[in-house]
Design brief:
Layout (H helix, E strand, L loop, with lengths): L5 H15 L4 H15 L4 E7 L4 E8 L10 E3 L3 H9 L3 E3 L21 E9 L2 E10 L7 H19 L19 E4 L1 E4 L2 E8 L14 H25 L9 H11 L2 H12 L4 H17 L4 H22 L13 E5 L4 H5 L6 E6 L7 H9 L3 E3 L4 H4 L5 E5 L4 E4 L3 H23 L14 E6 L2 H4 L2 H4 L4 E5 L1 H6 L6 H14 L5 E4 L27 H6 L1 H14 L4 E6 L5 H20 L7 E8 L8 H7 L2 E4 L1 H9 L17 H16 L4 E3 L7 H9 L4 E4 L1 H12 L3 H13 L8 H10 L5
Parallel strand pairs: 9-10, 10-11, 11-12, 15-16, 15-22, 16-17, 17-18, 18-19, 19-20, 20-21
Antiparallel strand pairs: 1-2, 1-6, 2-3, 4-5, 5-6, 7-14, 8-12, 9-13, 13-14
Helix pairs in contact: 1-2, 1-4, 5-6, 5-9, 6-9, 7-8, 8-9, 13-25, 17-19, 19-20, 24-25, 24-26
Length: about 750
């Protein structure tokens, strides 16, 4: 290659001038390949662009037959060009025609060329095309030449990503970047959202690729690396977590990568090819992404997240860009993020938000709970979504099925548009039922209540047609705060919740943290089995100061009214007695200090630990009411983590053992005349709701959006007939796994809307 490293720098400067010229896209591409061929002392330079149909189309060439441009195509499994696209790796050959993947295309006239060097055109690790140079004579291309061509490919990647080349596509064709994609993840929050992509962490824009002063770029990179390392060290020293659900282990891994000699060497090699510091980071990360995305080993793919984190931190140091968005949004926005904390979601303007798509985040993540509370269709665990989208891309989110349609074709968009309209019409029908009591066809009334956790939920209690707030999750206030809420802040929230609930009762659940619900400002406890560990009432009883402060805030907020408080994760009657004693001490404290007290105080228990099933008589004698937490109770009964995809499908909430357990609770409560409500997700599904009503439940608490569908099912149900149909199946001593299919057929036969 000419003049040590002067060649690539000179080439990059010339290409930058070409990029600025006011010429057509084809003319610009034609000039680019001429400059590359001259600089690389090659007889041929060709650019192949990947189309949405998976074909690589020749878009420009210097040295091959010009007539072949836009006519020659290869699949990604065909020829040397296809091999480079498939593997996303450079390929240098002294005798190309001897390679088993060589594919001869007579229209190009390339049979006279021996040597071949090709590199993928990459962006975000995804292949957009292939850049090739060829020589007549046998020639071994140096590492510097490969590096220079890879660097040049970055300019072409930006040209493709900008959409400039779309105008050159054949009629009916589009580039790979515009291809429709159907993706799948885990449903987090129901609903259908149609809109355009907004990245929560906007992609950092590199404004200058070519270095003016290489020595200055080296200094900038060294300073940025030092600043980034210091930032990571400070975060670890403070014990802070970054982002949602991340913790010290992740930061330790990132610190390890930040000191990796191989990574630092690759950055410096990219700098030497004539790039700016930020372009060098982008180059190295592009290559790493391309390799790791194609790995099947989940551990290696997980390392991709760590490298992404590192590259983004370094780019933020170099550019000052990359802070997460918040506040206003364009119309019909669908947020896309790797992950997101609950507070970040609440910062966005709800009016324009149509959906949320995350790479991480399961159904029980904090942000999923907030999305459901806000009624935003949301999907989590969508692999590599942040790399596949561009800001402004059309996108459809189906929160019921977990499907994401990216850049959907017109027929798919029309089908989902109709689905959204149908959902809106159904919501309108449910709205008409708002003031109609949920009474079965044979005259049995079922109370429908609402789960809430934010003030915004409570404002919709009347609109949803709920009889009360059957569960107010107090931990959400703690999860979205940057520090532990003071007594005055807790009191203000609880008082406001009571005020906006339109005179309906509110059942407050004391702080249910631990397991997956770790507060940002609390040190994470390393536990073998966090779901079975130090959480909920166990923390409250071990740290009575926390429980006393919360109970004091609740009792003051309920002054002059009926107050309902329940304790989560109670495993023994002794724990409930201890919690009651703490509450009684707080009542005595308030009385001594002349605070007005609630006119009536009712204390209840969440039945979610199976040990309580054998203490039901005792607990009914102590508690004023019971609330069944079906989510935890079911997973503990079956010893199955409901968020673990490998085992979650091994049980069904409508299985006979689960229904027997639930029936035993309601039967004992009825004997003691203790009110009982079920407030898990099971109660918010129409089929499950009629099963629960049939076994004796007369109170169900659910998400606001579920009240309409459940009420419609209850109104159409003959409860006596359903009970007579269901009871024998629950008691049947055979291997019936679930009654779901039989019950669905029965309900549909009688016209129950499900």
């Amino acid at each position: 290659m000419r003049g040590a490293m002067g060649g690539p720098r000179l080439l990059l400067r010339r290409l930058r001038e070409v990029m600025a010229e006011p010429v057509s896209a084809q003319a610009r591409l034609d000039r680019i390949v001429i400059h590359i061929a001259a600089n690389m002392v090659a007889e041929v330079c060709s650019v192949y662009v990947l189309r949405s149909d998976g074909q690589l189309e020749l878009y420009a060439t210097e040295g091959l037959n010009r007539e072949a441009v836009h006519l020659t195509t290869l699949t990604t499994s065909e020829g040397l060009v296809g091999l480079i696209a498939e593997k996303a790796e450079a390929l240098a050959l002294a005798d190309a025609q001897a390679h088993p993947s060589f594919s001869y295309r007579p229209e190009t006239g390339e049979e006279i060329y021996q040597s071949f060097l090709g590199v993928p055109i990459l962006r975000g690790g995804n292949t957009l095309g292939v850049l090739v140079v060829q020589n007549r004579a046998r020639r071994t291309y140096s590492e510097e030449e490969v590096e220079a061509l890879q660097t040049t490919a970055m300019l072409l990647a930006e040209m493709i990503a900008s959409g400039e080349l779309q105008s050159l596509a054949q009629p009916g064709q589009s580039l790979s970047l515009q291809k429709p994609m159907a993706l799948r993840g885990s449903p987090l929050s129901e609903g259908v959202g149609l809109g355009h992509v907004v990245l929560h962490e906007p992609r950092i824009v590199i404004k200058q690729l070519v270095a003016e002063d290489p020595a200055a770029e080296t200094r900038r990179l060294d300073q940025a690396i030092a600043a980034m390392r210091e930032q990571i060290d400070m975060l670890i020293a403070r014990g802070d977590r970054y982002g949602a659900g991340e913790h010290r282990d992740v930061l330790e891994t990132v610190r390890m990568f930040a000191n990796d000699r191989g990574w630092l060497r690759r950055l410096r090699e990219a700098l030497e090819s004539g790039l700016t510091a930020e372009a060098a980071v982008e180059r190295v990360q592009n290559d790493a992404r391309a390799k790791l995305q194609r790995q099947t080993d989940p551990y290696l793919r997980e390392r991709l997240h760590d490298l992404d984190d590192l590259a983004n931190r370094l780019l933020q140091q170099l550019t000052g860009q990359g802070a997460a968005h918040g506040g206003s949004l364009p119309a019909n926005a669908v947020l896309v993020a790797r992950n997101m904390g609950p507070a970040a979601l609440l910062e966005y303007d709800r009016a324009n938000l149509r959906g949320l798509v995350l790479e991480d985040g399961g159904p029980t993540s904090h942000v999923a709970i907030i999305a459901r509370a806000l009624g935003i269709p949301a999907i989590g665990e969508v692999q590599s979504i942040t790399d596949l989208v561009e800001t402004g891309d059309p996108i459809i989110v189906d929160g019921a099925t977990g499907e994401v349609q990216l850049r959907p074709p017109p027929d798919v968009e029309a089908a989902y548009g109709e689905k959204a309209r149908l959902r809106a019409r159904r919501q309108e029908q449910y709205h008409k039922l708002r003031d109609v009591p949920a009474v079965t066809r044979d005259g049995v009334r079922v109370g429908l209540h609402m789960n809430a956790g934010l003030l915004i939920d409570c404002q919709h209690v009347a609109e949803a047609g709920a009889q009360s707030i059957g569960l107010f999750r107090t931990e959400l206030q703690f999860m979205v705060a940057s520090s532990f809420p003071r007594l005055s802040e807790q009191y203000a929230l609880y008082k406001k919740v009571i005020e906006v609930s339109d005179g309906r009762p509110v059942t407050f659940r004391t702080l249910d943290i631990g397991s997956d619900k770790v507060l940002p400002y609390m040190a994470k406890m390393e536990e073998e089995n966090p779901a079975l560990g130090w959480r909920a009432i166990r923390i409250g009883l071990d740290r009575p100061g926390l429980l006393r402060m919360q109970l004091r805030a609740m009792l003051r907020a309920g002054a002059g009214r009926e107050m309902r408080i329940m304790f989560p994760m109670v495993a023994t009657t002794a724990e409930f007695s201890q919690a009651k004693a703490v509450c009684e001490r707080e009542i005595e404290f308030l009385r001594r200090h002349d605070y007005e007290l609630p006119t009536e105080l009712k204390l209840g228990v969440m039945v979610e630990v199976p040990s309580l099933l054998w203490q039901l008589d005792e607990i009914c004698g102590l508690a004023d009411f019971l609330s069944v937490g079906s989510n935890d109770l079911t997973q503990y009964l079956f010893a199955v983590d409901r968020d673990n995809k490998r085992v979650a499908a091994r049980f069904d909430t409508l299985s006979p053992p689960n229904l027997r357990a639930l029936k035993s609770i309601v039967d004992v409560a009825a004997r003691h005349r203790t009110p009982v409500t079920l407030c898990g997700e099971m109660g918010g599904k129409p089929l499950e709701a009629i099963a629960l009503a049939a076994i004796g439940y007369r109170g169900l608490s659910m998400a606001p959006s579920a009240i309409g569908p459940v009420k419609a099912a209850i109104l159409a149900t003959d409860l006596k007939a359903t009970r007579e149909f269901l009871t024998p199946m629950i008691d049947r001593p055979d291997d019936l796994v679930s009654v779901r299919h039989e019950l669905r057929c029965f309900a549909e036969r009688f016209g129950v809307p499900l």
